[in-house]
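Hi X.,

You mentioned you wanted examples for the new student's onboarding notes, showing what a folding record looks like when two proteins sit in one file. Here is a clean example. The first protein comes first, with its sequence line followed by its structure tokens.
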Amino acid sequence: MNEPSQALQALGPAVQHTHLTSLPLLARGKVRDLYAVGSDRLLMVASDRLSAFDVVMKAPVPGKGRLLTQMALFWFDKLSGIVPHHLSGDAPESVVTPAEVPQVEGRAMLVKRLTPLPCEAVVRGYVVGSGWKEYQKSGTVCGIPMPAGLSMTTPLAEPIFTPATKAAVGDHDENISFAQLCALIGPARAEELRSTAIRLYQAAHAYALTRGIVIADTKFEFGLDEQGTLTLMDEALTPDSSRFWLASELAQGRIHALDKQPLRDWLASTGVTGGAEQAALDLPDDVILGVYERYAEACHRLCGGDE
């Protein structure tokens, strides 16, 4: 057995899907399984499923769901002074049977049921990804005019807010203008969403820098509680929803991403970047391990103690 295979085996079995019989299953997303807990709460369980280009891969990453949950819980607590979050304060293990506890322990959140806003709040501190492609063509990012001469490693003078519609599993999110967002959720709510998302990004970015990480961009999801209060939901500031770069590498003009970049690179080398053909691929062990190691480093740096 080669070294990557041995390292993956040491992580223990992966959780591809959860199977809780004590609660009604509402949905399986790209990563999370969602169960109803009465009429006012939800149990969100982070599996080890791995997705890229909006397609769930055949192979999971052992332990990934636990890392995602640890980071999300950390950020919900750290940023709670800016906006309320959806955590109920109750232990996820309290709503399943004793036999089901191993399926949820360390990888679940028990949350309040909210009315989700039909959009994603994306904040960008750098021009990268789809924004970089657009910038090269038109000098804009999501229709917003940008200064000339930017590179992917050039920080923006101020972060920009680029909302998107929320797509179903397997579909692509679509960027929309702020005017379209106003039409979708109302001007006052759109302004609140934009200012809140930018404040969250700025606070998280400042903290991450002290841990040697640059948050290049991120996306947030919000809902409304029964009083109509804007509330942070789903997850926040994990490698699944953000681009984390090592600050030491960025200072040298290089990008070393603490996310699923090993998977993206490998898929690009195969020429397959979407659809059923991608979903059927067997991933090499070194690619799976590479994703785990980058997620684990991000988690350790951001959530660990003093270095």
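Then the second protein repeats the pattern, sequence line and then tokens:
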Amino acid sequence: MVWGMVWTALVLFMLLWGRKVESTLEKISWAFVAAIVGSMVILLIGYVPAESIWRVTKGFFSFGMIPEGADPVLLGGFAAYSAAGGIFNISSSNWSRDKGYGMGKEVGYISGAIGGEKIDVHPTGIVFRPTAENLKRWKDWLHFARLDQWIIFGLGCWIGMWLTVNFAVGLIPQGTKLGGWAVAAYQGDAIRKFLGTPGWVWVQLIGFWVLFGTQLGVTDSATRQMADMLYNLWPGLRSWIKGDIRIIYYIVFALVVIWVIMMVSVVKLPLTYILIQANIAGFVFVYGGIQTLVVNHKFLPKAIRPNWFEDLMVICMIIFYGIFSLFAVNKAFKTTGWVILLIVYLIVLLLGIVDLAKRKEEGYQE
């Protein structure tokens, strides 16, 4: 508990400096990612049986098959937390904006509280005119965005999941009963048998950086999303803060930090809390997917709307996470729960269809 608060305070300190340490943090993160992936590959080759590797690899492509006796809430949580998890996958566009990519250079970004400066952030975004020159630039940016999302992020996340699942399956005998955080401890002890205490420390450091790096990214992402929504929704609030979005960001950030400390102090079953949050993230995926389809086809010029394959991928995501959300709610609340959730999904879908049916060509801002 004490160390949880210490590292939360360190996250607060690092994020206060904003862009001043961003480049340093990125370099450190790349180094740690390389170290983690390299370590996992070495451990996999050295200590995980080939039969386990084949079984896990085959499982990644066994679509529609759910193991007998599997917990739908646990599976739903794993599915929702894969990659960045729920709303944080959706917020990747914020990262592109704050890096100044494409129209992000015109929209503005949230600067750091210490050493940062006031940056005017456009509350509704800016759409470029679909001229021949602009469309050429758009295609260049789209090329990089697809490379980033499909190869670096998409394939990278798949490899990350494949490595960690292989590591667990290869080291923990099937049927072993483990509770709480014992899963992580068990893997460290398993490597200790081969490499002694240095091996145990090695595995624990891998787990630490994965969790700390996630805390750093998720804390910033959640705060950024909430600050953006408040800034965009209320013109009166923008007037009150005189256009300095950092004020909202750090007020929300303080509340998030207080919330995290309360959870660390009060919640006695952290994994249960994580599973609840994860399945809520699955619901966010469903709602966010529908919202993405509506926004893309209502507000974007026809020339830059996603193609049919990209739309199909979003629809598949909506169905996938919709099913897992229903499984989880059914286990927790029985028939009443999934009926209510299904009604909510249908209402969101109908509102999206009605909105699309009424869409008109929007004017473009310079």
